[in-house]
Amino acid sequence: MSAQQKSNILSDEEELLNGLGSQLLSHPSSNNMARLNKRWTHTVPNHNGGHHRRARTIATPTSSFTDLSRHQQHLIDGVHDPVIMNDDTLSPGQLYSTDSGKLFHAGRILVVLVGLPATSKTLLSVAITRYTRWLGVRTESFHISKYKADVDKGSDLSLDIQSAAPVTEEGKQFKKTMIKSIVRDMIMFFIENRGQLAIYDALNILASDREELNRVFSKLGVKVLFIESIMNDAELVHRNIEMAIQSNDYVECSKEEAIERYMKRLTINEPLYETMTKEEKGVSFIKYINFGEKLVVMNNQYGYLINKIVFFLMNLRDKKGCVYFARCGTSDKDKYIDDEYLNEEGLEYSKLLTETMLRRLEDKKKRAEQGDKDENISPLIVWTSPRKRTYDSGRFFLERGIPVTKRNLLKQLNPGAIADLSKDEIKEKYPAEYKESLRDPYHYRFPRAESYHDLAVRMEPLLLELEHTSNNVLIIAHESTIRVLFGYLMACTCIEVPNLKFTRDHIIEISFSPFCNKVRRISIPDGAINYVV
Amino acid sequence: MGFRIIANDQDVRICVFMVGLPARGKSFISQKIVRYLSWLSIKVKCFNVGSFRRQLGITQPDAEFFNFANQEYVNIRRQSVINTMESMFQWFEDENGTVAILDGTSITCERRTWLVEECEKHNIQPMFLESWSDNEDLIMENVKEINTKSPDYAHLDVASATRDFMKKIEYYEKVYETFDSEKDGHLTYVKMVNVSDEVIINKIETYLQSRIVFYVMNIRIKPRCIWLSRHGESIYNVEQKIGGDSILSERGLAYARKLKDMIEENAPGETLTVWTSTLKRTQETAQFLSFKKLQWKALDELDAGVCDGMTYEEIEAKYPEDFKARDADKYEYRYRGGESYRDVVIRLEPVIMELERQENILIITHQAVLRCIYAYFMNVPQEESPWMAIPLHTLMKLEPKAYGTKVTALKANIPAVSTYKEKGTSQVGENTKESQLHNILRRDSEVALSR
User: Fold this and answer.
1) Three-class SS of residue A325?
2) A61: which residues sit within 8 A by CB, 6+ positions away?
3) N or C: which end of chain B has fewer CB within 10 A?
């Protein structure tokens, strides 16, 4: 850690003066007293060291195009996209933007996960990353497993380095180097990439390791919070092992072998485990017990952002099911102002949707019975928006005894003045508004309309309910609503969200796994599955 | 689009039962939850067991009344809980309520089991909020507050009231059963140990429950005060333009200087933290204060969108429909390309949460934002809050207490234009009847308790 690096971490005080880049009182500038500082804009320091205000352009067309194609063609979970220094792209759930890229005056925070193997640490770190990024926090998760990659999987060393306290010289050295590089990378993240929240995913079951982390990062002005995951529910642990052996560490061995190796990993660490206690002086920690059933928050002094994470953890549960999205069927006039029931075509579609959906679940159930533990047999529930034709689209599910609930929150984006207008009509009637909307389609509101951002804020409870439920949930809704929910689950940016396409010929399936969420497209009516990876 | 729909999409009904010995801040927490949830437009009501007991004719009981060995008294107290519950169920039915708070002690397992059963019968989700404390200072602070404010002790001098109250606590301690993770593992409960030193959260099942816990985690019980001020008069204020990012007028600067003196005079020796918005006029107002300053984007003025920089007369002429629509529903009205009061309330979440955690904060912000913050502390309904007159060049001191928030307004006696616009006109001025009615500060220094 050089002195140069240290000085690059701004203190809270410095951050106020420099980081926020507000024009200070010494130069009350020109005659122009108009407000340039809107909710979605902030100032960017120029290269001369001074500050100048400019309205932030949300994205250049080129970058939006590449970003878009990445998600549209591959539909990859964006939760691991690196946080980039000068990338000021806003997040969908962000309340406002700041110059420093930091929010809530929360400073920099390191969350350290603690727990034995198979306690869902990776899942937790990724889930917190997803949620805080959605809120606009510059978060990145750091997984120790990535740093072990180049060791031969079958070797003795490979087992030794799975231990929190390796016994061989080589193993000890390896652990040291590994921690050194991960700590270095996290420091770089705070300094170079203007990171606000780093999440460190490793065992960290030794009090001495934790003390060292706390010492190093506290000295740098980074607040440290530990989250200890404890599982004493045997079924949960078992499920976690099944899940863990699907990870890259175990790709080239048989399932039995993988379980055996995993159990070894658990056995060597169990005796070393030092659970967190009040005796670890001045340390703030959260005990996360049996996947959110119980939480103990100790000595929490870090404020809004940490409380928001606790809030999230209260809602997060072990997800056994998948989330499915489908559009509703068609109605005659197909207009926003007429709230109509389905027409013939729409009914036909709903029938096919129901059959396709149930066949998919039936297939999964069969595979689960044949011993594929990856598959789930959770019950299905259906949520629809309150509009007539959408609720009507669920009628064949109802007929089969599957619960269908109208959710007011799923109401489509209110189009306001541009309801039922074609693109050309909008251009003609609202030329200025149209032009403005192209600059920032995510935040722009037409007269009396909602923006996607409004929708994202309004649907927050649903996002958390999706994190909570263990059912399979099928959401039948308007494209605008699906865009936002999908955007959350797949960590899309606000450039991507308004451009996502959902058509009536597919059901979208999102399945959860610890490291990232996966999307499949199920074709209606033949049920063909497009495994988009 | 009401927030009530947002947070209560599935007609969830929740009852929060306060648990704990007397003087553990239960009433304070109940009142805070009520204020927070109603600020978010969620229908909430607090039911105080003590007031139902008073309705049964037991108005100023001495400690003996709380002796659990006396069956007659135990029966009366049980009856007051039964009456409270009945009244609460009635409220859920009649008013379509969402969250009820039962402010009592609920300190035995037997009682709590009964409460859960009753709730289940009425399809209400029960959750318990226990405030456990062994912090003597904190307890004594609460005892003092209760002895001076509660009608139960109005007839006693402070020393006898305290003696009697401590005896009452002793009786309760004999039967107190705190939440236990083994025995109570099946219940939804939150246990706060010495406010926030340790918080145990068990079996949270719905979004709204988690939202309440999230809020409670930010509350501090310590007595403290919050200082609020609008920025000094700005050039735009003088020109009667709204919004903008203008600098202060001469008189505005004079207020900025005076503000330093006023703080020194009214909060001598205290170290405050100053929160401003990112707009120039609030920073200029703070410039003579030598405290630590934080800028919050969330404190920026309500964005008037296309109307930014216009006078009300210009708006009325150029956007007559918008002008009318805003007067018709000022809370929900969104300026074209701008914000509504509700939008401001949502973006203020981090500020409010931090404000609850911190001590000694001076906020220098703007008219609409100040109205929202004031409405939160004083429980002003949303039909009224956007119409409150909060004049320039006035410093307000808020002191949140268990039974309400005390407000003191201090005028700087530096003249400033009025920016108050009453309904149906584009003229500004505070000398109208309307503004007098809505003026929260009808005298130079007034004490008002929140409802």
Assistant:
1) strand
2) none
3) C
Residues of A within 8 A of B214 (CB-CB) are: 307-308, 310-311, 314
Summarize the annotated binding site of B for substrate as residue ranges: 230-237, 281
Sheet holding B14-19, edge to edge: A139-143, A197-201, A108-114, A222-230, A284-289, A294-298, B198-202, B189-193, B125-132, B14-19, B99-103, B44-48
- What three-state secondary structure class fits B421? strand
Contact criterion met (CB < 8 Å) for B287 and A25: yes
Instruction: Report d(CA A39, CA A54) in Å as an integer.
Output: 13
The per-residue b/e assignment along B337-349, b for 16 or more CB within 10 angstroms, e otherwise, is: bbbbbbbbbbbbb
Pick the CATH number of B226-449 from 3.40.50.1240, 1.20.1250.20, 3.30.450.20, 3.40.50.150: 3.40.50.1240
The nearest CA of chain B is from the CA of A494 a distance in Å of 18
Average the pLDDT over B350-357 and give the result. 90
pLDDT at B275: 94
Chain B positions touching A445 (Cβ under 8 A) are 334, 337
Q: Per the residue annotation, which of B118, B184, B231, B339 is the catalytic one?
A: B231
Mean pLDDT, each 10-residue run in order, chain A (533 residues): 42 41 35 64 38 30 37 65 72 78 85 92 93 91 84 72 87 90 94 91 93 93 94 83 71 76 87 90 89 89 88 90 93 82 91 94 87 75 91 93 90 86 90 87 85 90 92 94 94 88 91 87 86 52
**Binary contact (A35, B336; C-beta < 8 A):** no
Residue B153 to residue A236: CA distance in whole angstroms: 54
- The average confidence (pLDDT) of chain B is 88
For chain B, the domains span: 12-217, 226-449
Within 199-228 of B, beta carbons closer than 8 Å to A belong to 199-205, 207-211, 213-214, 217-218
Ranking A313-317, B8-12, B271-275 by mean pLDDT, the lowest is B8-12
Domain boundary assignment for chain A:
3-52, 91-315, 323-414+450-532
Give the pLDDT confidence score for residue A43 in this predicted structure. Answer: 39
Compute the nearest-CA separation of B118 from chain A (Å): 24
Supply the pLDDT for residue A167: 87
CATH of region A91-315 = 3.40.50.300
The CATH code for residues B12-217 is: 3.40.50.300
CA B177 – CA B21 distance, rounded (Å): 10
A412 touches chain B (CB under 8 A): no
Cα B164 from Cα B400, distance rounded (Å): 26
Q: Which of B145, B184, B301, B356 is catalytic?
A: B301
CATH, domain range A323-414+450-532:
3.40.50.1240
Question: Residues B65-115: pLDDT tens digits?
Answer: 999 889 999 999 999 999 999 999 999 999 999 999 999 999 999 999 999
